[in-house]
Amino acid sequence: MTLILESSIVAANEAYAAKFTPEDVNLQLPPVKEVAVVTCMDTNIMPASALGFKLGDAHLIRNGGGSAREALRSLVVSQQLFGTKAILIIKHTDCAMTKFDNPTIHSLIKKNLGVNADDQDFGSIEDIEQAVRDEVEFLKTHELIPEVVRGNTTGWIYDAMTGKLTKVV
Ligand SMILES: [Zn+2]
């Protein structure tokens, strides 16, 4: 990390911590809203703001594309240890994961790192809506997802240009 970036992050955190009060902290570990959200790491999404979450409200799990498969480990922990009873899968418009395919990233890895990673799936997405449906189906049929959670698993698309969330399934 560059020194300039690091110092700007440290300065921002100092300002944040200066206004921080213990009342902001939910010391009860289970999320107040009993929900886990899986969404993309995209910089244009601020899930807590978009969904109205405060500290302590929900588990937010992020990765490239908002992959439920990649998030499975965290979802199981969220449900088994912290009692969450619902899952929201949120993908979004103009996701960068729709702009490449596996061969593209495989060749970048070869060029940049000299490593053959051709057997790895980096999770590119062809159709966002279909991907939402597939991942909800993946969770609703997975043996590690409890029945009560399967019934409360929904899929959404977030419009990065309007901030609006639309339910798919
Ligand atoms: Zn994305």
TrEMBL record:
Which EC class heads this enzyme's classification?
A: lyase
EC identifiers of the protein = 4.2.1.1
Entry's Gene3D superfamilies?
Carbonic anhydrase (3.40.1050.10)
Reactions mediated catalytically: hydrogencarbonate + H(+) = CO2 + H2O
The UniProt entry, under CDD domains, shows:
beta_CA_cladeD
* Highest rank taxon of the organism: Eukaryota
Keyword Protease assigned to the entry: answer is no
State the Pfam families in the record.
Answer: Pro_CA (PF00484)
Q: Name one GO molecular function term.
A: zinc ion binding
**Cofactor binding note:** Binds 1 zinc ion per subunit.
Q: Which residues of the sequence carry a binding annotation for Zn(2+)?
A: C40, D42, H92, C95
Cite the entry's keywords alphabetically.
Lyase, Metal-binding, Zinc
Q: Which cofactor does it need?
A: Zn(2+)
> Key word Lyase present in the record?
yes
Per the entry, what this protein does is: Reversible hydration of carbon dioxide.
Tell me which family the UniProt entry assigns to this protein. Answer: Belongs to the beta-class carbonic anhydrase family.
Q: Under which name does UniProt file this protein?
A: Carbonic anhydrase
Species, as recorded: Morchella conica CCBAS932
Organism lineage: Eukaryota, Fungi, Dikarya, Ascomycota, Pezizomycotina
